Amino acid sequence: MKKVININFQGRVIPIEESAYEILKEYIESLRQFFANEDGKDEIINDIESRVGELFSEVLKKGSACITDTDVESIINSIGRPADFEAEDGGTGKTDNAGANQSSEKFQTAPGARGRLYRDENDKLLGGVCAGLANYFRIDPSIMRILFAVITFGGFGTGFLIYILLWIILPSRSLETQLRKRLFRNPDDKVIAGVASGIAAYFNMSVWIPRFIFALPLVLGIMSSIFQNVFFHFNPFPSVIFGSFGGSLFIIYIVLWAVIPQAHSATEKLEMRGEKVDLNTIKNTIQEDLGSLKTRTEKWGAEVKETFQNKSRTMAGEVVPTVRKNGSRLGHAIGIIFKGFFLLIAGSIAFALLMAMIVLILIMVGVMAGGVSAFPLKGFIIAGAYQNFLAWSTLLLFLGVPVIAFVVWIIRRLIRSKSHNPYIGYTFGSLWTLGWIAAILLVASISRDYKTKAGIEEKMSIVQPSNGKIFIKAAPRSNVRYFDGDWYGIHWNRNESPFYALSEDSVVLRTVQLRIQKSEDSLFHISEIKFSRGANPESAKDAATKIDFAISQFDSIVNLPRGFDISKNEKFRNQQVLLIIDVPVGKKIEIDRTIHEYSGFNLNLGDGYNDWDWNDDWHNNYSWNSNVEYIMTNDGLKVTHQQEVKDEDNNQSSDDQSEPEEPKISDSTHYHYQQKNDSEKSAVKKTEVSINSKSSIKKTVRITDITSSFFERLAL
Amino acid sequence: MDIQNTQSQMRKGVLEFCILSIIRQGEVYPSDIVDKMKGANLNILEGTLYPLLTRLKNAGYLTYRWVESNSGPPRKYFLMTDQGLQFYGELERTWNELADAVQKLTSPDGKENLPEENPNNNQ
């Protein structure tokens, strides 16, 4: 049993059930709210109402006594509810229009919202400012974004400031795109990311034009290198101009890649090639807008005011259901600003890391191309399972993980995987942390192996030369093949390489130095001091003893080996050999040029002298030139034929005057070191001398010097 | 990006054009437009049609006339203005281009068609 009422609806008298009337009233009200922002909203409502009335009278004509709930429902269904209109409009709108949110909702879904400046909620990267501006000018948001990027980078961040300002000022709305054409990356026709073909589609030109422009630096680079190689170093392309030009084009491409979305759907692909967009369109748009500027400004002002009120209300802490949505926006915005800054910083760090990664990969590839293990010297430095484990962990985790992560990132980027799997990040992060730990432990462990230094002095028995002169030269040993300066195909500067040759199981060092001093008696003496480092004095001494640096003599000619072998079992512990030649007064000495091939290589990377020290009193040490005959006098070493002196190097000229200066020079280079270790060293020396064991004279000196302290600092 | 959204976007683009083409054939009552479109398998809600007509009318492309009905109040019949005809002509041209392009791209023997079509376009 239902009450039936009569209503006058659009000029017709309609008998209708009261509940049906309520439904109808609610429906009309929902339409009124939905079209509230429409220019001809009354007309639209009126048209729909009269149509409804017409349908009512049709129902009545069929013989019904009155309009029932079902009748109203079916009519409403045929005309459609606001939710259905939205679904038809693109399905992005909210389906539930009931509630107090409606006053703002109706704006968001209003198709006629264009013409006022908003931030676009639908299409935003940060705050939707660019999308809103683009919507206003009816151009593509991507273009606006690029413009902002240009202003930001070119104008020292002004673009960013403007952006933030607009972000704060402009109210946010869900805007409906008015565009028929947008800038997309074209996934169907791409070389790298489809940027060039997307641009070509947007500006209606052939694909090869943008592609050629982007490829220009590459082409020019190739051409200029060809010119350089073929035409005798004549390069018609100034590399400075094209270098920066090419670099900026490359950056532009990357920026465009990041900013322009890819056209995924059919709609987007149509939009990519849609309506022509030119200055005229933009001009028309602006002219249109200026026409109704006044009313719009008023409306817009009211909305901005509303937004601000909502914001301030939220800041006061009032949570009002009607403004909840708007209120959370401010917090959201602040969050996004931080996010933006974070992304900016993280981005630059990531870029730097990326570059480092690429360099690392190149290095690794280069080393692996060497054909042996990833680290050729590994076998000579790493000792024991522990260090081996650490070394491999370091290689795999510390160096390998970032490389793999980079590759994974590239692949995910290429397949455009959007799934956010945090575990990938966690896994890589923790593995890399382990790599760091391994690397630190490795450095600490290795540096421990270099902690102490030992030296062993050995007097060589030599026959006194018959003519009172010795000639010293370095000769290759017959059983060793030397690959001079060839280190796995990588060219080493001969003067800097510490090695003569490196093979699977041994390395030939040439860390040898020569000292000439005045003999205390009338005989020539040659003694060599072998240095090595080690974890403790015993192991250092042991390693030093194992150095095999045998000299041979043929009357006046003394042959020195060109280097000494270190096997894998002995390990590289910065072994060095110092050869001291005592020349008696009145006797002559000449040193061959080959001696210069010895290298003062030093782990200290200092001046190369720190580690060579042996005695505190190097006062009778003389400098010399090769292939010059010297005679030892009471005043020191003198050139036998004065006319032969080539004053090439002031330090090396051996005049009487230079002699007293020598200790000073020597002192200045050793100053720091000697200050530190004088007392300790001499004390240790005395005790060690008494322990003399095997050879004629042996001394072990413990020195804690810069190298080990450097490593220790590293380890800490 | 779901399929429904894409479909409705595609439909939305041609809706205006279809409605105008119906009105161009002579003055018409909105519910007749809905029926005609239904007949052509293109569904549109009256609730969507009315705002669209009002917008087109306000833009000057359409006008309307009150026609007495034998039952009840007079009905609003829509007809096209000269400006609307011009607008329709442009839409038609765009549509033809689009249909042509879609046809070419989607037809299974599109690869064979392309070389044949190109000389025609040049003429």
Q: What pair of chains forms the biggest interface?
A: A-B, 37 and 32 residues
Helicity level of chain B: 55-70%
> How many separate helices of chain B?
5
N- and C-termini, Cα separation of chain B: 40 Å
Cα-atom radius of gyration of chain B: 18 Å
**Major sheet attributes of chain A:** 6 strands, mixed
Describe this protein's structure.
- The complex is a heterodimer of chains A (716) and B (123).
- By secondary structure, chain A is α+β, with helices and mostly antiparallel strands.
- Chain A is built from 21 helices and 19 strands.
- In chain A, the strands form 6 sheets. In chain A, strands 13-14-6-17-18-19 form a 6-stranded mixed sheet, with no helix packed on it. In chain A, strands 5-12-16-11 form a 4-stranded mixed sheet, with helices on one face. Chain A has a 3-stranded antiparallel sheet with strand order 9-10-15, with no helix packed on it.
- In chain A, a hairpin with a 2-residue loop joins strand 13 and strand 14.
- Chain B is mainly α.
- Helices cover 67% and strands 10% of the residues of chain B.
- In chain B, strands 1-2 form a two-stranded antiparallel ribbon.
- In chain B, a hairpin with a 7-residue loop joins strand 1 (62-67) and strand 2.
- In chain B, helix 1 (3-24) packs across helix 4 and helix 4 (82-106) packs across helix 5 (110-122).
- The longest helix of chain B has 25 residues, at 82-106.
- At the A-B interface, helix 2, helix 4 and helix 12 of A face helix 1 and helix 3 of B.
